[in-house]
Automatic annotation (TrEMBL):
One of its GO terms (molecular function) is monooxygenase activity. Residues 2-90 form the ABM domain. PROSITE patterns: ABM. PANTHER family: HEME OXYGENASE (STAPHYLOBILIN-PRODUCING) 1, SIGNAL TRANSDUCTION PROTEIN TRAP. This is Antibiotic biosynthesis monooxygenase. It comes from Halobacillus trueperi.
């Protein structure tokens, strides 16, 4: 299994707005070959720290998704957030190969 985490930090007062955006997400990734799950995680001590957690069957499945037109479409939508503070978010992306369960 391959895991991709994209962590963002927003002002605490913007956290609920970003959560709402993800609750209404397009779900295009859900249809990708090799996709397992999506979770949005909120740090319990820092409400403005949110992490998108994606699980994939393999690194190859993730890379195929990351090069797809659907991936580009989703990330173009992010640039169109009406809130300027949320438009400028740059995530810290970490990628992991699961080596034990």
């Amino acid at each position: 299994m391959f895991v991709v985490d994209s962590m963002v930090k927003v002002p605490d007062h913007k956290a609920d707005e970003l959560i709402h955006i993800y609750q209404k997400r397009s779900r295009l990734v859900d249809q990708a070959d090799g996709f397992i799950s999506f979770q949005l995680l909120q740090n319990d001590k820092k409400p403005g720290e949110l992490t998108v957690h994606l699980e994939w069957e393999s690194k190859d499945a993730y890379l195929k998704w990351a090069r797809s037109e659907q991936f580009k479409k989703i990330h173009e939508l992010e640039k169109q957030y009406p809130d300027q503070e949320l438009q400028g978010i740059v995530p810290k992306v970490s990628k992991y190969e699961v080596v034990a369960t």
